[in-house]
Amino acid sequence: MRQRRWLIVLMSPLALWLGLLFLAPLATMVVFTFRAGSFGPEHDVFTLENYRTFFGNPTYSRLLLSSAWISFVASVLSILLAYPVAYYLAFQAGAHRLTLLLVIIVPAWISFLLRVFAWKLILGSGGLLNIVLMAAGLVDEPAPILLYSRSAVIVALVYSYMPFVALPIFVALQRIDRSLIEAASDLGGTGWQTFRDVILPLSMPGVAAAFFLIFIPTLGEYVTPLLLGGTEGLMFGNVIQSQFARALNWPLGSLMSLAVLLFTLALLAVFVRLVRLEDWVQA
């Protein structure tokens, strides 16, 4: 009983903090979805018109699925690029491991907005990409080849979030018992077989954590599509931001935000239901 009381005492500040800064705003957002307007007399009128507007317009659902696809592609590409880096750090870097980790993390210290602007300059007409292509004779005149497209958004998202993807994979690889790798080698396993049957399954919890670490925030991303996406790279977060900042339609914007949250939770529930990480570990 004493242990339980101490646990309650220790968790109370965190629970209070979470309730004030997450649950209370979330409840307020849910209430806002039933408002007829953001300000004035309509603010006190409850209605289902926002739900009819949202579900009656298929453009919103298509844009949400398109945004989910962009986030999925960015997440998969980030993992494919970050896994070899994490593998090298965990098994090959040796004494240089901390230095290389610092090199990976340092770009994340720079302002996110500044890094996105840098990609706008790189992909622009007078950017580094056009200079290289013109020097190679592949293009005759400068032009924004990737800028204002879905590809530009994916490239910038992968660059921005890849350091955060490498860290959980590195931690998962670092925690693998080296005796298991030695046992696989003693049993005649090749390097590829050891990686496929031992290292990869044991690192999958870190891969799954890395996937959702980038998928969840990028699903609501709006800064990168705003600066690099143009009309082709528009994401659902841009519509939400427009409802709050331009249209001043906070009820509909709250409903869209709630839709993103529920969509993410639904995907996470399906993932947990269909894929058991402990089965990967035991494989």
What does this structure look like?
This protein is globular. The protein has a single domain, classed as MetI-like (MetI-like fold). It is built from 13 helices and no strands. It has 283 residues and is mainly α. Helix 3 crosses helix 7, helix 4 runs antiparallel to helix 7 and helix 11 runs antiparallel to helix 12. The model has no long low-confidence stretch (mean pLDDT 85).
Q: Topology, pairings included?
A:
Elements: H1 2-32, H2 49-56, H3 58-91, H4 97-109, H5 112-123, H6 128-135, H7 150-174, H8 178-186, H9 191-219, H10 223-229, H11 236-245, H12 250-274, H13 277-282
Helix pairs in contact: 1-12, 2-12, 3-7, 3-9, 4-7, 5-10, 7-9, 7-10, 8-9, 11-12
Features:
single chain, 283 residues, mainly alpha, MetI-like fold, 77% helix
Write a short abstract of this structure.
With 283 residues, the chain is mostly helical. It has 13 helices and no strands.
- Just name the CATH architecture: Orthogonal Bundle
At the first level of CATH, the class is Mainly Alpha
Number of strands: 0
- Runs in which pLDDT lies below 50 for 5 or more consecutive residues are none
Structure classification: mainly alpha
Quickly count the domains: 1
Evaluate the radius of gyration: 23 Å
**How large is the count of helical segments?**
13
